[in-house]
Write a structure and sequence with these properties.
The complex is a heterodimer of chains A (about 775) and B (about 550). By secondary structure, chain A is mainly alpha-helical. Chain A is built from 28 helices and 13 strands. In chain A, the strands form six sheets. Chain A has a three-stranded antiparallel sheet. In chain A, a hairpin with a 4-residue loop joins strand 11 and strand 12. In chain A, helix 9 runs antiparallel to helix 10. The longest helix of chain A is centred in the N-terminal third of the chain and has 34 residues, at about 160-195. Chain A is elongated, with a radius of gyration of 38 Å. The longest helix of chain B is centred in the first third of the chain and has 34 residues, at about 30-60. In chain B, about 35% of the residues lie in helices and about 10% in strands. In chain B, the strands form nine sheets. Chain B has a three-stranded antiparallel sheet. A two-stranded antiparallel ribbon of chain B has the order 1-2. Chain B has a two-stranded antiparallel sheet with strand order 4-5. The chains are: A mainly alpha (about 775), B alpha+beta (about 550). Chains A and B meet through helix 6, helix 10, helix 14 and helix 16 of A and strand 2, helix 1, helix 8 and helix 15 of B.
Chain lengths: ~775, ~550
């Protein structure tokens, strides 16, 4: 272009470029502050607490940036706004930032902000001055139109006087209301800018650092200043009169409402609603009435007519979009889990296996239930009273997961049943062995606790919300979500589950007790019955101990589960996740493959008791082991991992009979049509000869946990204990097993009666006739496995 | 017909596009238009005013504003840490004590239950900067919450002590010193007791408040009578239903200077029903520790049983005991306390003719301290802050037994969703080695305060007093501890602490055994014990 310094157009263009750049910068900063305040604050290292002040600054700066736009596009018409933007907006922002840093001790970064504002402010002032100089030189300064240049002429004598008066009245009304609005803004602006500490105390809201509140105050003032020209000449600056309502006032009360209702900001921010809503309302009425009057008078500009059906449809579309977004955000959106570290052990302890989608409990509900219904727990102690392993510093017990799918949900994973706890004498804390069969966890107790809570009529918002409110200040939206949806929905789901689990209350069935579970009958109810209606729980009974998850890859071809109902570890892992509550769509199969690798290779823990090992005795025991046990149980035994018929082994046959051929067929057909299927389920009618690694940690013994210690299993059936107490983690290194008798066990443990159905301690009489010395040697060897 | 019908102008009719006025006009259009405009503006202003009034009310009941103090020292004594009831107006959470005005009139309403007022419980009243007595004693904070002046406990209530050098001298107030004179159980028992007294009625309470503070306006009286007082009664009765078992006459007696740290917490934070806990778990009173010189304690195992090594978590957890909740906590208030106690110096032995110190003996005692005590008790000692297994120390085990594994697990759920969530609590089986700074002002000794003086602590337990009086703040410089054989002073009875009953039966939680034997200095010669004692005075 031709740099003709005397041509106003040259300066106009230069002004547009400069101010345009400044506006873009302001916009970017404003939107970043408003929409991504936490990230911005983290990135810059500038603090901001509560974050609402920062977001408010962003919101107001966005408005200011919008006000920058009209003079940018038409500097002739919006000359006053151009000056306001350059001198007042840029100038005072720069001044405040600099003063706050140099005197008030605000973070240094604000100095940079202030300087940038100054640079743009001065550049714009310079350009505007040059522009006006050029215009004066040519004698066509548009500023001469200021003060009623566009005021319509009207003649009071014509019959249209009524309309004319109305136009005038509404203009006067606008004038006053808009000035009062600016005055109302100033009630907040002046104290916030000049006496921020005092004002923040008055509001009861802190701001750290205080500059965010100060800036928010200043920006509110700047926004107000942009209202002024439209008050002076509502005809010429009608655009600004409307901008003052939308987006300005509208954005103000929308922001404050959202901040308080769904972001949990301090209620004092509702003042913003009170400030903006009435003025937005009044000004809208006045301006539209003015418009009507003007149209009647004939001075209004022509506007394209709206199609009448467009408005409701547009409103509907906006409403659906907003509600849909909120719904997706609050109910469905899935967030990656934040685990303490990336190790597979941490994933095993607290990682999601997909059980939260369908069966996750809302987190705050889960946290509050023990405090709301302590009477349904076996003893005081929250979830710890159910024997779950709770590591120091951990948010939840081992085997529990927290994942946000819309809202935070709590699920369970493999570790709930596959982590053991051993209290070594002299150590303050019990040791947690990952992969070990759970010995203390009371799984049915947990389910029954949840069911009992759901059955209690106090399971409602009125009881639970105050307990949640002790722990956390939920936003109003989240409170409504919990009260209106999550609590009733959870209750309904739990009641349904309680009905599905009703068979577990059959008095003819033995209690599970700690460390035991019915692994497949719940699967029949939840999954298999839907595939084949003939598959039911009926009289079948499968109560059994948990199995260890270690070294599962070292014996290729072995069968899994007590009865060997599957020979493919991939299927075993996936089906277990489904049994824990994952669905075919929610199950994270790639993560489970990592877990599978880990349980294939994870070695069995060594016997931890530092007692002197009699190497001679161990060597003798090894010989006995080779002769008596190796064929079925040693790594090189030809029967290892194979199924021995229950009739032959003689142990309680309920577990083997529980898994019927129909059930196996149904499970094999469950995923038909999917990219991954089950095909290795089978019914065996016997029990697997299991490898004995980490045997010391697998007490009590036999699949149903009916024999408390290793030394007991070497006794004839008649001499095995018939009553003992399970669930302690105190270890008896002599007998090799947990402590199951004595005053402590009797008061804290679960009474196990071998005479009940499914609890039989008969069978596996191998080695019971050995001489006592041989048994001692064998025991010494078995400890070391 | 009419292109622009306007029901607001019934007397005006126009015809045709040129809008010629054809009807009689009863009032001029200008008047009509103006009237309508002004009436709308008036309605808007009224609406605005109404909104403002509603807002003022809302602010009154939602504003959360502590009474603030300029200096950290004053904040420590009187400032709020957020332990006042707060949260939502409809179901407030936290707090232990009734609102300020009610709290203030309780002793006057029930002189039979608390003769002598709160001061008789060992709460310390000072004069304010204006020379007049303050409204509240040390350790009680004020905060505007839920539309009321609320009262909370702060750290100072248990961690400011007094001593006198003789019966006639004025008491000295030492910030950070264990409040050995404070009967906290008595304070709670009183508050829990009076709300169910038939005299605790709205009219009676309001009457006493107006007598004390002057007449109040109709609105305040209405709110107090119909909402606040019934609410306080309900809340306190709920509180009593949960922790009452610890404050009923048959409960284990804490006595002055002691608190059962974790049992109230089990019920208040986690809803455990204390009735279902084993009886012996509910006997766990222990002395208040000193709160000075915390900077070098960072990283040591804190609390008597060393269950946490994080100063911040320890502070927050103690705050829970004072009545804060995760939603009502005042983090900046606690941060101020922290910055104060980090460098609060331990009190120096106030050497004077009444409080003599034998410097020569102290010099000799330093050597004995180095060889006997320093490994465990000096800041540079190898074992400072580590937990000594109970098998070695053998002091009363009730305290760490009441801190169960289940409890420490549940603590992990506190302060959820924040960087402040408790992560460092762990069960221990023993007691942590404490630094001995200002040890002279930390009598009685051992975690359960079962040994009245340092001199007694250097005797084997068979020679330690089985019964003695606690709560008197006259200092005994010879034995290094408080006077422990005075049953009452000016009508105020001191508390008889019993390790064993008269017939020799041990009292649960009060054992004075342990921390004895050659390693612990109980077999030193008389002269050596004297030297060591003189040295300990200088710490």
């Amino acid at each position: 272009m031709n740099p003709d310094a005397s041509d106003p157009r040259y300066w106009k263009r230069l002004y547009s470029y400069t101010a345009g750049l400044g506006t873009v910068l302001s916009f970017v900063l404003a939107l970043a502050l408003m929409l991504a305040a936490p990230q911005v604050l983290a990135l810059t290292g500038v603090g901001g607490l509560p974050i609402t002040w920062t977001q408010l600054c962003g919101e107001l700066l966005t408005l200011i940036s919008i006000f920058y736009l009209p003079p940018l596009l038409n500097i002739d018409r919006y000359r006053p706004h151009g000056w306001i933007a350059a001198v007042i907006a840029r100038g005072t922002t720069g001044l405040l930032c600099c003063i706050a840093v140099l005197i008030g001790g605000a973070p240094r970064l604000f100095l940079a902000w202030g300087l940038v504002e100054f640079v743009f402010g001065f550049a714009q002032i310079y350009l505007l001055r040059r522009l006006e100089g050029a215009e004066n030189g040519r004698g066509n300064r548009p500023g001469s139109e200021w003060n009623g240049g566009a005021r319509p002429s009207w003649n009071p004598e014509v019959p249209r006087a009524v309309d004319a008066i109305r136009v005038r009245c509404w203009k006067r009304a606008y004038h006053w209301v808009a000035w009062i609005g600016i005055g109302a803004n100033m009630i907040f602006v002046l104290p916030l800018v000049f006496f921020p500490q005092w004002m923040l105390r008055m509001l009861g809201v802190p701001s750290e650092p205080v500059i965010w509140a100060q800036l928010a105050g200043l920006f509110l003032g700047l926004v107000s200043v942009f209202y002024i020209p439209a008050i002076g000449d509502v005809d010429k600056y009608r655009l600004f009169a409307w901008l003052a309502i939308f987006p300005s006032r509208t954005a103000g009360f929308t922001f404050c409402t959202i901040a308080v209702v769904s972001l949990g900001a301090n209620e004092a921010f509702l003042l913003g609603v009170l400030l903006d809503l009435p003025f937005a309302f009044l000004q809208t009425i006045i301006l539209s009435r003015l418009n009507v009057a003007e149209r009647a008078f004939g001075t209004a500009p022509k506007r394209p007519a709206w199609r009448p059906w467009l408005r409701p449809i547009a409103a509907l579309a906006v409403a659906v979009a907003i509600l849909g977004t909120i719904g997706w955000h609050k109910l469905i959106r899935e967030y990656p889990q934040a685990l303490a570290n990336d190790s597979v052990e941490e994933y095993f302890k607290h990682g999601s296996i997909g059980a939260e989608d369908a069966q996750g409990l809302p987190y705050w509900l889960w946290v509050s239930l023990p405090a709301a219904f302590p009477e349904y727990l076996p003893k005081p102690g929250g979830y710890a009273a159910l024997g779950f392993i709770w590591e120091p510093g951990s948010e939840m017990p081992v085997g529990f997961t927290r994942k946000r799918i819309g809202f935070d949900r709590v699920g369970i994973n493999c570790a709930l049943c596959h982590a053991g706890s051993v209290q070594i004498p002299g150590e303050a804390l019990p040791r947690c062995y990952l992969g070990a069969p759970a010995n203390t966890a009371n799984i049915l107790g947990y389910q029954r606790f949840l069911f009992a809570c759901a059955k209690d009529p106090r399971f409602n918002g009125a009881t639970l919300m105050p307990i949640i409110a002790r722990q956390v200040r939920l936003s109003l939206a989240d409170q409504a979500l919990y009260r209106g949806l999550l609590i009733p929905a959870t209750r309904k789901a739990l009641l349904q589950q309680a009905a599905d689990w009703d068979w577990t209350n059959d008095p003819k069935r033995p209690e599970w007790g700690p460390g035991r579970i019915e692994p497949f009958n719940p699967v029949k109810v939840a999954i298999l019955h839907g595939v084949d209606p003939k598959v039911t729980v009926g009289e079948t009974l499968g109560t059994s101990d948990m199995e260890p998850l270690w070294s599962l890859g070292t014996h290729p071809g072995r069968a899994f589960h007590w009865d060997g109902l599957n020979t493919d570890l991939r299927e075993v892992v996936d089906s277990s996740a489904l049994g824990d509550g994952a669905t075919p769509t929610s199950i994270p199969r790639p993560r489970l493959r990592e877990l599978e690798v880990w349980i294939r290779n994870n070695p069995a823990p060594k016997f931890p008791f530092p007692e002197p090992v009699d190497t001679n005795l161990v060597a003798r025991g090894a010989g006995i082991y080779r002769a008596q046990c190796a064929r079925c149980h040693a790594a090189d035994g030809d029967l290892l991992g194979r199924v021995t018929p229950a009739t032959e082994i003689g142990t309680d046959d309920n577990r083997a009979k529980m898994w019927t051929p129909e059930a196996a067929t149904a499970y094999n057909g469950y995923l038909d049509g999917k990219s991954w299927v089950f095909s290795h389920f089978r019914s065996t009618g016997g029990y697997v000869n299991v490898p004995l690694d980490g045997l010391w940690l697998r007490a009590p013994y036999l699949h149903n946990g009916s024999v408390p210690t290793l030394s007991d299993i070497l006794k004839p059936v008649a001499e095995r204990p018939t009553i003992f107490w399970r669930g302690l983690n105190d270890y008896d290194p002599k007998a090799v097993g947990y402590v199951t008798d004595g005053p402590a066990a009797q008061s804290k443990g679960f009474r196990y009666d071998t005479s009940l159905r499914g609890n039989g301690n008969q069978g596996h009489t191998y080695g019971t006739t050995l001489p006592q010395s041989d048994k001692a040697a064998l025991l010494e060897y078995l400890k070391q496995l | 017909m009419n292109p622009n019908p306007d029901p607001g102008l019934p007397t005006t009719r126009t015809r045709g596009a040129d809008r010629v006025l054809v009807d009689v006009v009863r009032s001029t259009p200008v008047e009509v238009a103006l009237r309508r405009l002004w009436s709308r503006i008036a309605v808007s202003i009224v609406l605005l005013l109404l909104l403002l009034i509603v807002l003022a009310l809302v602010r009154r009941f939602t504003i959360d504003q502590p009474v603030t103090y300029k200096t950290e020292a004053e904040h420590f004594l009187y400032g709020s840490i957020g332990s006042e009831p707060g949260g939502s107006l409809l179901s407030p959470v936290g707090g232990m004590l009734p609102p300020f005005q009610i709290m203030a009139v309780l002793p006057e309403m029930f002189p039979d239950k608390l003769p002598g007022g709160y001061a008789s419980l060992g709460l310390i009243y000072e004069n304010g900067p204006d020379g007049k007595p303050r409204d509240l004693p040390i350790g009680l904070s004020r905060r505007h919450r839920l539309g009321m002046e609320m009262v909370g406990l702060n750290c100072a209530v248990c961690h400011v002590g007094t001593y006198r050098t003789s019966a006639g001298t004025p008491r000295r107030i030492v910030p950070g010193m264990p409040a050995h004179q404070l009967d906290l159980q008595g304070l709670f028992a009183f508050v829990l007791d009076v709300v169910s007294d038939p005299r605790f009625t709205a009219d009676n309470v309001i009457g006493h408040i107006e007598a004390k503070f002057g007449p109040m306006n109709r609105f305040d009286r209405f709110v107090l009578g119909t909402a606040i007082i019934p609410q306080v009664q309900r809340q306190t009765l709920t509180l009593r239903s949960r922790v009452g078992i610890l404050f009923q006459p048959t409960a284990a007696v804490w006595g002055p200077g002691r608190v059962d740290t974790f049992n109230p917490y089990k019920s208040l934070q986690f809803g455990w029903s204390l009735e279902r806990l084993p009886k012996r778990e509910l006997v766990a009173a222990s002395d208040f520790p000193a709160l000075w010189n915390q900077a070098p304690r960072q990283g040591l195992n804190l609390h008597w049983d060393g269950n946490n090594s994080s100063l911040d978590e320890r502070n927050l957890s103690a705050g829970l005991g004072a009545g804060i909740t995760p939603v009502t906590v005042d983090r900046s208030g606690i941060a101020r306390v922290k910055s104060y106690i980090l460098d609060l110096p331990p009190p120096k032995w106030p050497e004077s003719p009444e409080m003599p110190l034998d410097h020569a003996a102290a010099g000799r005692g330093a050597g004995i301290f180095r060889s006997y005590c320093a490994e465990c008790h000096d800041f540079s000692g190898k074992y400072i802050g580590t937990v000594v297994p109970w098998e070695k120390i053998r002091t009363d085990r009730a305290r760490f037994d009441s801190y169960t594994l289940e409890f420490s697990a549940n603590q992990n759920t506190l302060f959820p969703n924040s960087t402040n969530r408790f992560r460092s609590f762990k069960k221990t089986v023993g007691y942590a080695n404490q630094p001995l700074d200002g040890i002279w002002a930390r009598a009685p000794y051992l975690h359960n305060g079962s040994v009245p003086s340092l001199r007694d602590l250097l005797e084997p337990s068979s020679h330690r007093p089985k019964q003695f009086y606690r709560g008197c703040d006259i200092y005994d410089p010879a034995r290094v501890g408080f006077v422990d054989q005075v049953a009452q002073e000016n009508g105020h009875a001191y508390f008889l602490y019993r390790s064993r009953l008269e017939d020799g039966t041990p009292v649960d939680g009060n054992s004075n055994e342990g921390h004895e034997g050659e390693l612990y200095g109980t077999e030193l010669s008389l002269a050596e014990k004297h030297d060591l004692i003189e040295y300990l005075k200088t710490l």
